[in-house]
Amino acid sequence: MIESREAVTRMIVAAKVRKGIKWSDVAAEIGQSKEWVTAACLGQMTFSKAQAEIAGRIFELPDEAVAWLQIAPYKGSLPTAVPTDPLIYRWYEVVNVYGSTIKELIHEEFGDGIMSAIDFSMDIQREEDPKGDRVKVVLSGKFLPYRTF
Amino acid sequence: MIESREAVTRMIVAAKVRKGIKWSDVAAEIGQSKEWVTAACLGQMTFSKAQAEIAGRIFELPDEAVAWLQIAPYKGSLPTAVPTDPLIYRWYEVVNVYGSTIKELIHEEFGDGIMSAIDFSMDIQREEDPKGDRVKVVLSGKFLPYRTF
Amino acid sequence: MIESREAVTRMIVAAKVRKGIKWSDVAAEIGQSKEWVTAACLGQMTFSKAQAEIAGRIFELPDEAVAWLQIAPYKGSLPTAVPTDPLIYRWYEVVNVYGSTIKELIHEEFGDGIMSAIDFSMDIQREEDPKGDRVKVVLSGKFLPYRTF
Amino acid sequence: MIESREAVTRMIVAAKVRKGIKWSDVAAEIGQSKEWVTAACLGQMTFSKAQAEIAGRIFELPDEAVAWLQIAPYKGSLPTAVPTDPLIYRWYEVVNVYGSTIKELIHEEFGDGIMSAIDFSMDIQREEDPKGDRVKVVLSGKFLPYRTF
Amino acid sequence: MIESREAVTRMIVAAKVRKGIKWSDVAAEIGQSKEWVTAACLGQMTFSKAQAEIAGRIFELPDEAVAWLQIAPYKGSLPTAVPTDPLIYRWYEVVNVYGSTIKELIHEEFGDGIMSAIDFSMDIQREEDPKGDRVKVVLSGKFLPYRTF
Amino acid sequence: MIESREAVTRMIVAAKVRKGIKWSDVAAEIGQSKEWVTAACLGQMTFSKAQAEIAGRIFELPDEAVAWLQIAPYKGSLPTAVPTDPLIYRWYEVVNVYGSTIKELIHEEFGDGIMSAIDFSMDIQREEDPKGDRVKVVLSGKFLPYRTF
Amino acid sequence: MIESREAVTRMIVAAKVRKGIKWSDVAAEIGQSKEWVTAACLGQMTFSKAQAEIAGRIFELPDEAVAWLQIAPYKGSLPTAVPTDPLIYRWYEVVNVYGSTIKELIHEEFGDGIMSAIDFSMDIQREEDPKGDRVKVVLSGKFLPYRTF
Amino acid sequence: MIESREAVTRMIVAAKVRKGIKWSDVAAEIGQSKEWVTAACLGQMTFSKAQAEIAGRIFELPDEAVAWLQIAPYKGSLPTAVPTDPLIYRWYEVVNVYGSTIKELIHEEFGDGIMSAIDFSMDIQREEDPKGDRVKVVLSGKFLPYRTF
Amino acid sequence: MIESREAVTRMIVAAKVRKGIKWSDVAAEIGQSKEWVTAACLGQMTFSKAQAEIAGRIFELPDEAVAWLQIAPYKGSLPTAVPTDPLIYRWYEVVNVYGSTIKELIHEEFGDGIMSAIDFSMDIQREEDPKGDRVKVVLSGKFLPYRTF
Amino acid sequence: MIESREAVTRMIVAAKVRKGIKWSDVAAEIGQSKEWVTAACLGQMTFSKAQAEIAGRIFELPDEAVAWLQIAPYKGSLPTAVPTDPLIYRWYEVVNVYGSTIKELIHEEFGDGIMSAIDFSMDIQREEDPKGDRVKVVLSGKFLPYRTF
User: Fold this and answer.
1) Which residues form the active site (chains A, B, C, D, E, F, G, H, I, J) (predicted)?
2) Measured between beta carbons, which residues in chain A are less than 8 angstroms from residue B97?
3) Do J39 and I139 touch (CB under 8 A)?
4) In this complex, do C64 and B11 lie within 8 Å of one another by their Cβ atoms?
């Protein structure tokens, strides 16, 4: 009996390490971006039936695990409120240091509201630079204004 | 006596509201991006002497406040570890939901290391879209590999 | 110098107690629901210029406070992550006890996504009942599906 | 030996995924609302003997699990004080942003007291809307006044 | 300008110390139990107009403070989630050590539901005992069963 | 090997559910109050040898578990500092709302000191009431004055 | 108006620094141990009228402050749950590292119960030692057995 | 495979309960104080090879466990930052209530520095008293002055 | 199936204890500093294929574990935000007590920026001293200035 | 009236900004290292009378402030348990990532014990490097072995 989506995530990660699979290859087979597919494999998104079956084949998952992949998961991928891993912490630091700036500038441009984290996409790329290559990340989220009522 | 940079930030924010100043206009006068200038005005970055004097003129700050703007501040712009403001929370949510994905993909492309939050820039723009305009944010940070020793 | 929106909220609340003003009367003058107007007066929403001027007149606020009311505020109205006030705690308890239920049923009906807290409205009414009157609250939030990308 | 109600909840959830059961169908068989039945299946409410036996049949539970379903459980369905799942977080955000508003308006209408979370019901429905369907939730809780003594 | 009920509580406590007033005498004048009156003076309950005026006279409060006493306060009288004061901590310890026992026995007698903290009263008395006097506290709260729906 | 008292508590609770045992019957056999016996069965008190053997017979425990029941346990029966279960939370709320009141009144009657949670007893009873039965709880704790030294 | 005992503590500490007073001299005048008197001056114990007047004379306190010293204070002298000051942290560390040992040995000697922190005294002395002087602390607390009921 | 010192601690505690061993007898065999030996058995101190072998014989531990006893452990014996067990909590309370007093008196006697928790010993004894026996604890720690540099 | 790098770390630590291996010997075989190799063995750094195979041979790890050693791990080696172990706590204390000093002096020398914890090395040595040997630690991190943008 | 050492720290920091003083110059006048002097000025160390008077002259402090500088302060220079400032966070990250490594290597070299944070010194220097200058920090702390007793 598989008791949770986390158990499926652990199966996927273990299979990935054991078999030396790359996320970008999984993404190519599933036909979505590497960002969305990785998030889905790590238990944050819901696969369609077809997508789940491809993932099941790649990671050699049992049928019950494939069923779990089609269920909307309890999201949140970090073990602590403030992440300890340095790579992920730097993102938390950006939110902490620049959070008030982001808020001010979005409000200045759009008025009161938010940038959606649901109607949202992300693209991570290498940016070549002679002083050392850079990670370039493009985030795009629909602006949602507060409605009066 | 001005006891802290936070006191200067409060003066700037109060002057901005009272006088109806826009961050983008401040940025144009100071000659840096609106993102950096706003962060600096909100107490997260250090102004040069020339920049501090321009800011002092715009926000009608006393000399002591202009001196504070040139001192490296204790950074962190949020009152709680998990932000309560919905706009800023959405960013925290992105780190929480996509954090493990970002980590996996940067490691897949670059190996072990981090995306710098110091040698870093950010650009926030409106992306027009018939289904509702979007907020587009481009982040660029130098990749720093772990060194062995 | 008024340093923050919280200072304006304190002025409004003190004036309301001192003068015996009712939220529903403020709402009628401003021309929005009592729920939205109360939230805005308590520092959670942004007033238009016309609305702010009405509020300023009702609560006898200085011009600088009226300017603050038109600025998108840092939201969050509770002093602790788990609220201590019994009335508000009961709502937190509903989220705690029924949270997983709400999640399951929205996903069963709509698929993976969220109920917006931005494109959102709330209506609080007395429901007469011979066994003791009830508080009836209707919440309505747009369903936002996760997009694949 | 089944050591806790949580173990029974995990059995139910795993059976639901494995067999593709819908909460609304379970509710129809048990003869209560889908909201109450889902909460009960997720370990938040107490089944009667007859209800527990129906649930046991649907989810193919052993007798010991059926006995556990009739015991008042230790309630609380979220793993952290501030929920990380975006759908559930939006509800927490409503409590955080509108909590003081809800408090003010209930007190204005009813005086000092609370809206019960025990003598309470909830109804979740789809509200069709050309601009995008909405989730409509009706909450009804008895008003309980503080008694003097 | 009095900005909050806490400010009124501080005025009351300071006047009590300065003038050597006893809570039981305040209670006798107001005509409620010493338990309820003390809680109300400490900012946890709402006074009627008549009661507030008596309190105002005893503690020599300004009119604005008397108005605040008639407003339902944000409740919670402890500065930290786990109280540091030894007397109050012992009560927290009782909840911690005997909490599961209380839950089991109320459920065994009444079924699933709660003991109300709103329709609730408390009586604190000295119980003479040759081995050392005891504090006897009688708590009485209405049992509220969970309703199915 | 039984590694902890918690393991014995889980055995007792599982046996109670499986066999449909009532706490009051266990108390009658052991010859102490239902409050003390339930607390002891839930891992908060230490049984004598004779008491442990009766409990072992009722719950069909192995000898090693009977030994554990005679060892002073690490006490504390709640999984979080602020309890999530509504019944237990109401007690925490009483401490939070009335804590400062309890403190004031005990000090007014007895001087500085505490009400013991060790030389302590508790009695939980049904109080019949036409408006709905009530839970009556009598707490009795020795007053312990601070000594000067 | 003096609003709290903490305000009196701050007055005492400021006077002590300004006038170069020693705690042991205060203790000698008041006629109790230096440990108890220091705790009382720091807001943790209640002075008798005579003692408060001596303290008031030494620290040149106004009458209202002398009244506050005779009121049982809200105890707890540390700003955070885990103390940051190294001297005090070492004591917290002793509780953390040796806590389970202390528990085991007191139970082995006395059975289940506690060492009172109320019927308690403390004596801090210099212990001369050629390898470096030592701090010797003697704690004495009455053993309080749990009573069955 | 034994994965951690905690696993060895659980083996020791289980054997102690099962076999009815006393800490003072273990101490006598190992030839150190009961305080040190209990701390070491509970995973807080490092045994020498000879001491570990004696402990291994007493508690019937496998060779791998005896090896673990000779490794410096990750220390800290409490499951939460604020201990829930009443006996241990009283010690935490002493630190909380008397912490600032201890700090003041050690500084008054010794100057700035700390009382070591490493070059430290503890002795726990029964102190007979007609009003009820007392627990007497003597702590002795080397004073370590801050050095200037 | 090995589900995580932590599982591999536990295997390595258990093998080290069981076989009596020294970190410095592992470092010599792998050909990096003892500091880097220990961090890598404890799950904080990524091994190359050749390094992982040497580690696998020394600690007798299965192939799947050797694969895990080559994957960038989720970093963070402490079980709590404030470490309880005294040796590690002393480092946290240094950050707490001297953190603002370190910040001031690095800014005075270098301007605004940070000392990298990624382009970083550490060297731990014994420093002989007649008054007691000392631990000497040399940390070296690249200075990274904030860039304006 | 100056109520605390923190007030003196704020005076010093404000004077430093206002007058453009450098820490290294203060250190030269006081005759200790820049590391110790900065820590002392920031409220973490105790000045001698002579040192305090020099500091008082440099920062133009009143006599009462000079008296405060000679009192052992309550130490801890960070506003939150996990620091938000990026420069200081990197140090916390070193403790988090390398903490277990530091522990293992000090124990391997010295046995069980700690590196003192009291008998401790620190030296911060610029290390020139063609690939970008580095911050070199040398920490030296006496090793303190646990004593058996």
Assistant:
1) 90, 93, 116
2) 39, 44, 75-77, 117
3) no
4) no
- Buried residues in I91-127 as b, exposed as e (16+ CB within 10 A): bbbbbbbbbbbbbbbbbebbebbbbbbbbbbbebeee
- I with C: touching (≥3 Cβ pairs within 8 Å): no
> What was the ipTM of the complex prediction?
0.94
Q: Which chains touch G (3 or more CB pairs under 8 A)?
A: E, F, H, I, J
Residue F93 annotated in active site: yes
Q: What is the sign of the dihedral through the CA atoms of G39, G44, G45 and G49?
A: positive
Angle, vertex CA G107, rays to CA G103 and CA G108, nearest 5: 115
- Residue in H83, H75, A140 with CA at minimum distance from that of residue B139: A140
Q: Which residues of chain B have pLDDT under 70?
A: none
Question: Contact C87/D126, CB-based, under 8 Å?
Answer: no
Contacts of E100 in chain H (CB under 8 A): none
- Per-residue pLDDT, averaged over H76-103, amounts to 95
Which chain I residues have a beta carbon less than 8 Å from that of A20? 67
d(CA C72, CA C53): 16
Q: Which two tokens stand for residue I88?
A: 């590690």
Q: Please give the C-alpha separations between residue A118 and each of C3, C95, D95, in angstroms, as whole numbers.
A: 34, 20, 20
The span from the CA of D73 to the CA of H45, in Å, is 41
Smallest CA-to-CA distance from H67 within H10, H141, H8 is with: H8
- Inspect the interface and report whether the beta carbons of I17 and H68 lie closer than 8 Å: yes
Nearest CA in chain B to J83: B76
CA closest to H68 among chain I residues: I17
- The one-letter code for the residue type at I130 is P
- Phi, psi dihedral angles at J46 (to 5 degrees): -105, 125
CATH of I86-145, one of 3.40.50.720, 3.30.1160.10, 3.30.300.130, 3.30.420.40: 3.30.1160.10
Question: Looking at the complex, does the CB of residue A101 fall below 8 Å from at least one CB of chain I?
Answer: no
| Chains D and I contact (Cβ–Cβ under 8 Å for 3 or more pairs) | no
Spatial contact of I27 and J104, defined as CB atoms under 8 Å apart: no
Q: What is the pLDDT along chain G (149 residues), one digit of tens a residue?
A: 899 999 999 999 999 999 999 999 999 999 999 999 999 999 999 999 999 999 999 999 999 999 999 999 999 999 999 999 999 999 999 999 999 999 999 999 999 999 999 999 999 999 999 999 999 999 999 999 999 99
**What would the two tokens of residue B25 be?**
């206009």
CB pair distance less than 8 Å for D149 and E35? yes
Asked whether residue C1 carries a pLDDT value surpassing 90, the answer given is no
The residues of A assigned a catalytic role are 90, 93, 116
CA distance J119 to F99: 44
Q: Is G115 on the interface with E (CB under 8 A)?
A: no
Scanning E2-31 for CB atoms below 8 A from D yields: none
The DSSP element (H or E) to which B120 belongs, if any, is strand B113-127
Question: How does pLDDT run across E105-135, given as a tens digit for each residue?
Answer: 999 999 999 999 999 999 999 999 999 999 9
Confidence tier at H84 by pLDDT (50, 70, 90):
very high
| Intervals of CATH 3.30.1160.10 along chain E | 86-145
Active site annotation includes F24: no
Question: Does the pLDDT of residue D55 top 90, yes or no?
Answer: yes
Is any Cβ of chain J less than 8 angstroms from the Cβ of G130?
A: no
Q: How far is A67 from chain D (nearest CA, A)?
A: 6
Asked if J144 contacts J113 with a C-beta cutoff of 8 angstroms, the reply is: yes
pLDDT above 90 for H1: no
Cα–Cα distance measured from residue E108 to residue E94, given in angstroms and rounded to the nearest whole number: 20
- Class for domain H5-68, per CATH? mainly alpha
Nearest-CB residue to D18 (from A64, A74, A75): A64
